[in-house]
Write a structure and sequence with these properties.
With 271 residues, this protein is an alpha/beta fold. The protein folds into two domains: 131 residues, 3-Layer(aba) Sandwich (Rossmann fold); 114 residues, HUPs (Rossmann fold, 3-Layer(aba) Sandwich). Helix content is 35%, strand content 14%. The protein is built from nine helices and nine strands. The strands form four sheets. It has a three-stranded antiparallel beta sheet. It has a two-stranded parallel sheet with strand order 1-2. Helix 1 packs across helix 8, helix 1 crosses helix 9 and helix 6 crosses helix 7. The longest helix is centred in the first third of the chain and has 15 residues. The mean pLDDT is 92. Bound molecules: zinc ion.
Length: 271
């Protein structure tokens, strides 16, 4: 239900403006790749009428593009082989490897950040500010095991291809480092909207890790109505079809109606 709420919100928000909606799967880590999970996502989106305006984009197919993005950042980057143990307890990397500028295998690639104050506007949260050196410090754009990091892959894709990004507030912290990368890559950042995520009554986010029940596709119209209710959109008490619910949702969509804390999810909301 948590993913449906966010997917539906981003769908309505862009469709109301007459835009196109794209689905991207962030599957860059082969160790965490889950073909069954991917099939389930596809089926579930389809059952709820949420089909993208174009083929589903898989990040795992674009490693070569990410590698060229990494190379474009070379002037700002250095190689780091600090172990997890060495970094333990540090919230900000102290830059111990900044002198390692020549390519070295089995090293992660880190970007050196500055201490300029930057601003951005979030359509839901308002104006936000960050100072890279204070908020996150030098961060990894390429992993030691030769894979792109989530930050670089997402910054590159969003900056290159998307004009609007609406996602859950659990990803808000990712925005500043991603904006930093887009700036260094000369990409135009999208307009951001971060909305509250669905949680259990104790405040934990609904996810596979927290044993949220998998969304059933048996009654998608009921799920859509529930998702709209969580989003504060006040859906009418009607027996609409999936198509009618989406039509209603786009027509009546109000970002400002989303409550700052969504009503907690309970088992009775599960069909
Ligand atoms: Zn290091």
């Amino acid at each position: 239900m948590g993913s449906l709420v966010t997917a539906l919100a981003s769908f309505c928000d862009i469709k109301q403006r007459g835009g196109l909606w794209f689905v991207r799967i962030d599957d860059i880590d082969p160790q965490r790749a889950d073909p069954k999970g991917l099939e389930h996502i596809k089926k579930s989106l389809m059952a709820h009428g949420l089909s993208g305006d174009g083929p589903m984009d898989l990040q795992s197919h674009r490693q070569a593009d990410y590698a060229s993005a990494r190379d474009r950042l070379a002037d700002f980057c250095y190689f780091c082989n600090c172990s997890r143990k060495q970094l333990q307890g540090m919230s900000i990397y102290p830059g111990s490897c900044r002198h390692k500028r020549a390519f070295t295998a089995d090293h992660a690639v880190r970007i050196e950040v500055d201490d300029e104050r930057r601003l951005f506007l979030d359509q839901y949260k308002g104006e936000c500010a960050f100072v890279a050196s204070e908020h996150f410090g030098d961060f990894t754009i390429w992993r030691r095991d030769n894979l792109v990091t989530y930050h670089l892959a997402t910054a590159y894709d969003d900056g290159l291809r998307h004009s609007h990004v609406l996602r859950g507030d659990d990803l808000f912290e990712m925005t500043a480092p991603q904006l930093y990368l887009m700036e260094k890559l000369g990409l135009r950042p999208p307009e951001y909207t971060h909305i509250p995520v669905l949680t259990f009554a104790d405040g934990t986010k609904l996810s596979k890790q927290t044993h949220a029940p998998a969304l059933s596709i048996m009654k998608p119209e009921v799920n859509l109505r529930n998702a709209l209710r969580f989003l504060g959109q006040q859906p009418p008490n009607e027996q609409f079809t999936v198509g009618q619910w989406l039509e209603w949702a786009i027509r009546h969509w109000r970002l400002e109606a989303i409550p700052h804390t969504l009503a907690p999810f309970s088992q009775s909301d599960h069909q």
